[in-house]
Design brief:
- This protein is α/β, with parallel strands linked by helices.
- It has a single domain, classed as Rossmann fold (3-Layer(aba) Sandwich).
- Helix content is 35%, strand content 15%.
- The chain has six helices and six strands.
Amino acid sequence: MSTLRPFQQQFINVSIQKVSAGETTLVADVHPGSGKTIGALLAANTLMQAKVVDAVVIFVPRRNLAEQFEQDCKNFRISFPSAVLGEIHHRENEPPLIRGNASGYVTTYSSLASQPEVHEDIFKRFAGRILLICDEAQQLGIEYEGSFTRSADIISKLREYATLTIVMTGTPERGDDLPPDYVPEGVRVESKWA
């Protein structure tokens, strides 16, 4: 990868800043087509280089996005500066989810909701050394008659084991006009980063 987009370099910088400051959440309001998949993978590579994380788990709302993460990782990771990030494979719920020399996996929120225990095992195994990435997070946590989506509830539990949670959204508000789930209290996502 010869040249990073300014946004992608910022993604890397903000990830390191958050971890260095002991913060556990990075919220990125990123427009579709801006390179957020590559930005997130570059951040993962950088955190692995810094020996902050050992595994990466990515949740997305649709299967095509899971396949995009897998393909982008395959196509671009070897060109990352000082690449250490291994393959990221799209997995359903058939263990082991991280196989061979892979650095992690990507799957859908619906896969997570259907068998959360399979994913919880991974987070417990890599406790404190795992990067959690939630793509299109505006679809998580929409309140309906006092309850939240099942996947949002499970993500809340998994976050306890994560070194850093990267929350990516293409819109600053969820369907109920609140900021995406996991935005620090009092922060409105009006710009690129929170």
